[in-house]
């Protein structure tokens, strides 16, 4: 079952932990190295960070370790696996972007993509919703 687990872990309530502190904390808990073994993306608008593991680890066990960790509890952070989704929202797109370009871009294996089933452009918002054929191509 762990093989099907998401490679990404969501950390919520991160405001009391600086980005550098969070990276060091995750290195301490996982025994891995940021950038080489995992990346951390901050989403300050919603007080969340997402750690995505490049190295294959048991993310369910990692979440359990985090939830038991003294510092994580002191910071009042929560950790959970990132749910799989078939759609993503791309924002801040150039005015001239086409749905064909986005399809080709998000189908590129080099960009972590996969087969795209639909692209909805929202020109007024400079955004698009990209829907994949399966949830594997959305990293």
From TrEMBL:
InterPro entries: Nucleotide-bd_a/b_plait_sf, RRM_PARP14_2
Pfam families cross-referenced by the UniProt entry: RRM_PARP14_2 (PF23245), RRM_PARP14_3 (PF23085)
Taxonomy, superkingdom: Eukaryota
Domain called PARP14 second RRM: residue spans: 5-83
Protein name: PAR14 polymerase
